[in-house]
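re the bet — no i am not wrong, look at it urself. input seq straight from the record:
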Amino acid sequence: MRMILLFLACFGVSANEWTTEDKKMHLGAGVLIGHLTYGITEDRLKSYLVCIGAGVAKEVIDEIDYGGFDEKDLAVTGVGCAAGVEISRQLILYSDGNHAGIAFKW
């Protein structure tokens, strides 16, 4: 929580600007893309690059379509990428033929 508050303080904005529906969508997309790419590649760097690349591509499209490149959207997507990749690194998926499950490494 302290890191989030510090992050917001550095940008000098109110928390309300960071909690819109659009920002939640960017966070969710980052988590999903980060999780999926790490699951496929099992490589942190590649996963981060693909995920952030998708966020940059989305913002470039927004800029072309309506002049709306938003650094905050990109930052929130990046936070989602980090969460998705790092959570995925800690998950253990297993199956023994009769059972399947998910465990979490500590």
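see?? The helical segments are 2-11, 21-41, 44-66, 71-90. told u. also The chain has a mean pLDDT of 84. so pay up
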